[in-house]
Design brief:
The chain folds into three domains: 117 residues, 3-Layer(aba) Sandwich (D-Maltodextrin-Binding Protein, domain 2); 88 residues, D-Maltodextrin-Binding Protein, domain 2, CATH 3.40.190; 67 residues, Alpha-Beta Plaits (2-Layer Sandwich), CATH 3.30.70. It is 27% helix and 32% strand. It contains eight helices and 15 strands. It starts with a strand and ends in a 6-residue tail after the last strand. Bound molecules: phosphoribosyl ATP and zinc ion.
């Protein structure tokens, strides 16, 4: 049995449970217990505050964890990042009041910066040779300059709307973050095997994100041209149709080029184009 720590509530909770469910690891959410065994896979899920996940994994209280890379970096515990999970994307940035006259990082010399990420910020300033006073606060960092608790802030930014609302502007992106899978690096042989299964399943789910399955009917004379438009992983599947001179062509394309490909396919005579979502992609 392998123990996986996830955030008990908050931004990463739902997506972590969804990822597990997509990976065929069913966690009874209704139970909402601190420790819940999956019903169909040798994993038990430990619900924690995100701040405690790196430590839980480093000390062996959990074998694996799903947590923001920002927390992993800040806590600086002995854990291994196994893979990026493709959700919970954000960045840790320095932000200053709109009218601060900021021009370059040396502006921070002698200033007070409020943050919940003092370790990352300390290292960043050290590397730049900046001497600033770092003030650690637990939450609502963005209001610090308004209420006189700091000249600037170092905080998580996603859309940037919170900064704008508080009259702040982002001046430096320091760390890019997303949810990651971490491990203690000291798994039993049996748990190592379970981890490999989890990695394989998570990768298949990640690989399918942003992909679309395309089916169309195409005149036989246009098959080569169609293949050059939608090349697929190895090569597209081509099946003869009952109607003489026509085939059905199946392929997988990236969602962001989907419309471009459809327009090109229509131009060369493709008909009955059908687009389906891709749930898993095993390469
Ligand atoms: O209770 P617990 O300690 O477990 O949770 P928490 O309150 O510490 O964390 P939570 O649930 O807010 O966030 C968990 C993780 O989600 C973070 O550690 C990040 O890895 C990730 N994440 C992704 C974010 C955001 N996006 C985000 N936008 N965490 C916080 N924010 C905040 C940001 O600080 C800002 O104040 O959301 C606000 C809105 O951001 P904008 O830029 O979109 O306006
Ligand atoms: Zn937290």
């Amino acid at each position: 049995m392998l123990r996986l720590a996830i955030q008990s509530k908050g931004r990463l909770n739902e997506k972590s449970i969804q990822l597990l469910s997509d990976a065929g690891i069913a966690v009874d959410e209704a139970a909402r217990k601190f420790l819940t065994p999956a019903s169909n896979f040798p994993v038990e899920v430990l619900m924690l505050r995100d701040d405690d996940i790196p430590q839980a994994v480093a000390t062996g209280a959990a074998d694996l964890g799903i947590v923001g890379y920002n927390e992993v970096l800040e806590k600086d515990m002995d854990v291994k990042v196994i893979m990026k999970l493709g959700f919970g994307g954000c960045r840790l940035s320095l932000a200053v009041p709109q009218n601060s006259g900021y021009d370059n990082p040396s502006w921070f010399d002698g200033k007070t910066v409020a943050t919940s990420y003092p370790n990352i910020l300390r290292k960043h300033f050290q590397a730049l040779g900046i001497h600033a006073d770092i003030r650690t606060i637990a939450g609502s960092v963005e209001i610090a300059p308004t209420v006189g608790m700091g000249d600037a802030i170092f905080d998580i930014v996603s859309s940037g709307a919170t900064l704008v609302t508080n009259g702040l502007k982002e001046v430096e992106r320091v760390v890019e973050s997303e949810a990651v899978l971490i491990s203690s690096g000291r798994l039993s042989k049996e748990n190592q095997k379970i981890l490999e299964q989890i990695e394989f399943r998570f990768s298949s789910i990640k690989g399918s994100r942003g992909k679309r399955y395309l089916l169309m009917n195409i005149p036989n004379g246009k098959i080569e041209e169609a293949i050059s438009i939608v090349p697929a992983m190895r090569s597209p599947t081509v099946l003869p149709l009952a109607q003489e001179g026509w085939s059905s062509l199946h392929s997988v394309v990236d969602a962001d080029v989907l419309w471009d490909r459809i327009e090109k396919l229509k131009k060369i005579g493709a008909e009955g184009i059908l687009v389906l979502s891709v749930e898993k992609l095993v390469l």
